[in-house]
Each structure stands twice: as C-alpha cells, then as structure tokens.
Amino acid sequence: MNPFDDYRTLETRRQFFARGKNALGYAALSTLLGRQFASLAEAAAPSAPAVGPNALGLPHFAAKAKRVIYLHMVGGPSQMDLWDYKPQMQAWYDKDLPESVRNGQRLTTMTSGQSRFPIAPSKYKFSQAGKSGIWMNTELMPWQSKIVDDLCVIRTLHTEAINHEPAISYMQTGNMNSGRPCLGSWLSYGLGSMNENLPTFVVLVAEPTNKEQIQAISARLWSSGYLPGEHAGVSFRSGADPILYVNNPPGVPGDLRRKQLDGLRKLNELAYRQVGDPETHTRIQQFEMAYRMQSSVPELANVTNEPESTYQLYGESARKPGSFAYTALLSRRLIERGVRFVQVYLNNWDHHGNLGGRLPSQCKDVDQPIYGLITDLKARGMFDDTLIIWGGEFGRTIYSQGGLTKDNYGRDHHPRCFSMWMAGGGSKGGTVYGETDDFSYNIVKDPVHIRDFHATVMHLLGIQHERFTYKFQGLDSKLTGVLDCRVVKELLA
C-alpha cells in the first residue's frame, strides 16, 4: 500500500480534525475571491513549526542560569550517610523504629516482611565545613567539603513514588507515568540551542567503579514525550566515537554526503506537504545536525589536548572514558561549546545491602570530579550562569534492611525526605534548607516537593512554570502539572 494511505488510515480522530481544520475556510475563500486567489490556500499549507525563544516569548524574565548540568545518582543516595546529620541515632543503635515515626508508611516488598525495623546510625564521620558551617560527611567527601560554601543543600525533598521506575520518571519528567517530556526536553523546546553544531540536550551515562547493584536506565528518561522529537536528549557513548555512524563510510566524501542530504530533504519536505506529520521535520533536522556534528564531535571528545592541570583538578580517572570524572570533564567541554542541558547518570546508589562496602566507592567516584567541575567553571567564568544539580530519585530508610552491624548495613527506599543540592546559576550557596526529624524519616520544616523543585529550576532559567505550556490532547500541559507548587525563593541568591 501507499505509505500515505497507511498514515491516513491509522491516524487518530484528533489528528484528522487538526489536519483538516482549515479546509472549509479555504474552500469558502476560494469561492468568494475567485480562482486567481486559490493559491492563498496553498500558501497557507502546513510548514515547519516555529519554536524556540522568539516564538515562545522565553525567557519570561532575566535568567540567572543559561545552562544546566544535572548529575543524577541512580538508585537513591542515603541522605543520613551524606548530608542529613543525625548524631542522636547513635544511642538508638539496633532499637526498633517507633511506630509513631513510621506512622503506617507504605513499604517496599523488600522490607515489608521484616519482623522488626532496627535503627542503623551512620558509621561515617560528619563535621562542619566551610564558612557556612554545613554539617556533611567529610570522611567520604573531603573534596566537596572544600566547595561546600558554593552548595545549596535541600534536605526536605519528597515524592509519592517508592519504587525506582516511577520515582526516576517523576524526578525527570514531573510525572510517574512514562511518555512525558523530561526537564532537558522542556528547556530545549523553550530556550532553544546556543550552538548549531551540537545538540541542545546531551545525555552521558557514567560507569561506576562498583557494579554490585545496577538499576536499569532507559532512553525514555530523556524522551521528548509529546514535544517535537528534535528536543529529545542525544545520548553520547564513552570513548573516541561518542555517536555511532556519525562519520561518513569509506568512499563517501563530504560533498557527496551534502548532495544526498539535499535530495533527502526535498523528499521529506514533499512528504510533509502531503501528510503533515511534524515528525518529518524532526528527521530533517536530525540529518542536518548529524552532518554538522561530523566535524564538531571528534574535537569535543578529544580530551587528550587538555593540560595536565585538568587531570590534577578532576582526578586521574578523568583520563578513562566512561568514568564519572571523564563525564564531568566532558560536561564542561559540552557547555563550553554551547550545549544547553547536560544530563549525567551514575548508577549503583541503590544500597539495600553492604552500604559500608559500596558507599565509599560511590563517593570516591564523584567527590573530586564534582570539586573539579565547580572549580573549573569558576576559573572559566561560567559558574554564575551554569546551574549544577546533584541528587537521586528518593532517599533511604534509617532502619536497616537485612543484617545489621556497627560497620555494615543496608537501607530501603524512602520517599518522605531526601537530600539534593544545587550550585551556581543563581542558587544560594552556603545554604541548608529544610529540616527533618531525628530519624531523617519525616519533614518537620520547609518541605520541597519535586514540583516545587522543578518550578525553582525553571525560575532560575527565567521561566514562569505556570505560563510555559504545550497543547497536548486538548490540554495545556506543563512540566509542573496541575497541582499546586511554588518557586522556593529561599533557594535563590
């Protein structure tokens, strides 16, 4: 069958009416004004959708941040072992968590069958760091203690999701159901590109040193959802060839590739005029972007030309493609070249067991590279307008999962409170916001829901979240959804 006939057969009712909404008006206009004006209808035929800052009127006001590096720790870091100091728990070792604290909370199947919930105090050393005197785990994060005055630590993030898939989706897209645009796609759509030769939104997946418990990371997390497909994240691989097949095959010179793309563009434009599928323009732009990336990506990925001082700053592991230090360095190189949003994922933070054996490795992977990234951005004059985000999808329980000793324990998922931090980009460094109870189990002051966090991030980028919408299935959809949320002004510098 003709593929155009297939499309019309399978299209939805909404697509049919959207495609034909102006047909009656064109017919009436043609009748009233005569055949010589029939070309007006052809001139009004669908064309490439106009998107970007000029079309959308963004930013709504002067932005503090121009770009974002989002460091997502997949699995959920333990807040009471890193940022939420609870010294009172030492006296509670191996005592049961009071029911008045747990208060009937829904548990995962991994601990719901336990006969008791013994308290597991953190085994690590905390101390106050920086001029701000923020309490943090200085034993495992000595490098970050040197830059703690640049961090805005939020101890009272909370979510309704208690399992990884919906929780990560919620954190990335504002919704526990898949198929929604992620934060990077929203910003790509709203703010547009700062470099024609690289994608607006790039995804890097770092490889942890310890691989004891790896969570699935799927491309749906950086999907554009119902936004045009060109705003999906572009995943870069580790190594000298980050994008598969971006280079021309042997025997195909650049001028021949250019002629091929010009011909393909004409065919795609013809298909668009006949069918009106906006994803056709996505394909056109993807081909053009790939052509421009043939020269820009190899230079970007060649970190061997970095001076020796760079590796002293980020750590020797920055020489190893795929390491977190390498992705931190690559993140700096990406935003330096105009990439708007860099999403980094690091796995193995799901510490149901052997936290004492695994957490030191995780912290070693990220500690010096984070210090290096922030210090590097400062030296290049990019820290003030680059927003860096660090955190996971939820927190961990104060009670132990499985066996408990003074030196080792595990923790289950905990959505009621967890810690994240921001740095640069107009966030208020040297700040701790929010307060949890003695068990780091419930919030007692200044809660911050995921929706509040998203609204605040968008505010730093000059966007009023209520006004930034996209028409989808008859609704004005937005990242922060339909429930109440607020910009947390206390987090702003």
Overview of this protein structure:
The protein has 493 residues and is an alpha/beta fold. The chain folds into two domains: 3-43, no CATH class; 55-240 and 302-491, Alkaline Phosphatase, subunit A (3-Layer(aba) Sandwich), CATH 3.40.720.10. Helix content is 33%, strand content 15%. The strands form five sheets. Strands 1, 4, 5, 6, 7, 8, 11, 12 and 15 form a nine-stranded mixed beta sheet that branches. The chain has helices at 3-10, 13-20, 23-33, 39-43, 53-56, 99-102, 142-145, 164-173, 183-191, 254-275, 279-301, 308-314, 324-336, 355-379, 450-460, and strands at 67-73, 126-129, 134-137, 151-158, 201-206, 234-236, 341-346, 386-391, 395-400, 411-414, 418-423, 431-433, 435-436, 443-445, 448-449, 470-472, 475-477. A hairpin with a 2-residue loop joins strand 16 and strand 17 (475-477). The model is unreliable at 35-51 (pLDDT under 50). Helix 10 (254-275) runs antiparallel to helix 11 and helix 13 (324-336) runs parallel beside helix 14.
Query: Helical residue percent?
Result: 25-40%
Question: Structural class given helices, strands, pairing?
Answer: alpha/beta
Please name the CATH architecture of the largest domain: 3-Layer(aba) Sandwich
| Largest β-sheet summary | 9 strands, mixed
Q: In DSSP terms, counting alpha (H) and pi (I) runs of 4 or more, how many helices?
A: 15
User: How much beta, percentage-wise?
Assistant: 15-25%
Question: Within the CATH hierarchy, at the fold level, what is the topology of the largest domain?
Answer: Alkaline Phosphatase, subunit A
The protein's oligomeric status is single chain
Measured between the Cα atoms of the first and last residue, the distance is 61 Å
Can you tell me the CATH superfamily of the largest domain?
A: Alkaline Phosphatase, subunit A
The strand count comes to 17
Please state the average pLDDT score. Answer: 88
- The level-1 CATH class of the largest domain: Alpha Beta
Number of domains: 2
Radius of gyration using CA atoms only: 25 Å
Tell the overall outline: globular
Which stretches of 5+ consecutive residues score pLDDT under 50?
35-51
